[in-house]
Structure formats: C-alpha cells, structure tokens
Amino acid sequence: MIVQLIVLFLFNLNGSSSLPVEIFEVKRPDGKIEIFTTNKEYRPYTLEINWQLKNIDAPTKKFFLVPGSAKSYSLMVLHPKSKAYSYSYHFTCIPGDIVGAKHNDAVTYKFPFKEGFQTKVSQGYNGGYSHRGVMAIDFVANEGTPVCAARAGIVVETESNNKGGCASPKCMKMANFVKVLHDDGTEALYSHLKHKGVIVEIGQFVQVGQVLAYSGNTGWTTNPHLHFEVLVPDYKGGKSVQTHFMSNGKRKLLTKGDEVK
Ligand SMILES: [Zn+2]
C-alpha cells in the first residue's frame, strides 16, 4: 500500500484524514516555515517528497521518516530567500522505514506455537504452491491452535473479520492476520487466522511466546495452517526474508517436510 497525495499550498494546509500521516506547517517568528507531521498508526511511515520551489530552500534529501504515533513531529524547516516565495510538493507515503530498516539476521525466532506442540512444515521458502518469490514458512495447524509471537514487537495491524478461504489466489485478501513490528523495522506476518481469532490489539507490545491469535484456514489456503513471513519495508510493500528458527533445540532455516516442535 502506497498512498500518494499532491499538495499545493502557500501558508495553510489541512492534511487529508484518509492518510495515516498528516502534514501541517507553522510560519515561525523568524520567517522560516516549519513542516510538522502526525502519524495515526504505530507503524512508522517514510515520506518521499518532491518539491517545486521558488525563492525558498528546502532539504535536499528525498526521504523523511515519520515515527509511529508521532504527534507534531518536526520534519523540516524551509528557508525563504525573499518575500516573493512559493512552494508546492508532491509526497508519497510508504509504510515502514524504507531507508533504515534492515533485518537483524542474528535473531533466532521462536517456534510460533506453545511448548510441546508438534507439527510439520508444509511449504518452505520460495515454495512452489503459493510462496514463489516469497520467503515464508507454512506450519500445519488445526483451526484453533494458539499462535505465539516468534519475536517481540508492537502489534501494528490486525484483521479477524474474514470467514472464508479457498485454494485460489482470488481468496488471498480474505486472510485474517496479525502484523508485529520488530525493533529492526521489519514486520512479521502471521496469517490464515481463525474468524475472530485475534486476541491482541493494535499498539500492544508482545513478548516472545505470547499468544497472539488462534490459527485458522482463511484466505488463499488448502488446509488449516499458519503462514509466517518477515518483511523488510520497501517501495513495493515489503520484501520477505529468510529467518532462522529455534527448532528441536537447534537454530536452523526450516524447509518443507521438517518435523518441528
Ligand atoms: Zn504460506
């Protein structure tokens, strides 16, 4: 999801309420113009700003980070060079920190179920059924199995209202899910959850092993399972990466057919 908005203004701007990020400005006593932002979400956003400037200086960098839950966050200061100045800009609002986020490969993820639960990997990284080009793991799990956080973070997005699923990509958008933001700026996706099966709330900090939801069979799926994927934010909605799991007492990259507990 990338949202674009064209903004044209001289002194006053009312941000659009449909965007998570809003921008407003203050003309300071020293004549400079300070641009502030607010962010309604717990997830940070990257703003890509392209300027049209006349007799006013703006920062030359292209990307600006708006932290999650930012309120009146100072983004930049514009410096008029004469009284006859004008400016306009076009910005693109990209979920996540696309400049600073980098997956910490040293992290070992916890098996995303309760202690003692045993299962099998039904599809691995870049799997041929629905993971072509996707670095995700599918764990077989009966509907109603508690799904636990594989890594600590903040819940930034949830969906649990969907009821159905089918064995076709056309059902992809019917998946229930939880997304957890990690301290390196990446996000974990726990998907195909049960209808009304999410028990955490947006903004909640979750510890490793904490129950997030109950597994299900919603979305593009043939059998009840948990789809787990970690995404590094980028311009295209996120790039998935391989993650090491602690499984059977060993740190490893899981593959299809692995028996895990
Ligand atoms: Zn999957």
Describe this structure in words.
The chain has strands at residues 3-9, 21-27, 33-39, 45-54, 56-57, 63-66, 73-80, 86-95, 108-110, 119-123, 136-140, 146-148, 153-159, 165-166, 177-181, 187-191, 193-198, 205-206, 211-215, 219-220, 225-232, 239-241, 244-247, 250-252, 259-260. By secondary structure, the chain is mostly beta strands. The chain has two domains: 3-95, Sandwich (Immunoglobulin-like), CATH 2.60.40; 108-260, Glucose Permease (Domain IIA), CATH 2.70.70. Strands 10, 11, 13, 15, 16, 18, 21, 22 and 25 form a nine-stranded antiparallel beta sheet that branches. Strands 1-8-4-6 form a four-stranded antiparallel beta sheet, with no helix packed on it. A four-stranded antiparallel beta sheet has the order 2-3-7-5, with no helix packed on it. 34% of the residues are buried. Residues 3-17 have low confidence and may be disordered. Zinc ion (ZN) is lined by residues 123, 130-131, 136, 138, 227. Zinc ion (ZN) binds at residues 123, 130-131, 136, 138, 227.
CATH superfamily of the largest domain: Glucose Permease (Domain IIA)
CATH third-level topology of the largest domain: Glucose Permease (Domain IIA)
Shape: elongated
Q: What ligand molecules are bound, each kind once?
A: zinc ion
Number of domains: 2
Q: Which stretches are poorly predicted, pLDDT < 50 over at least 5 residues?
A: 3-17
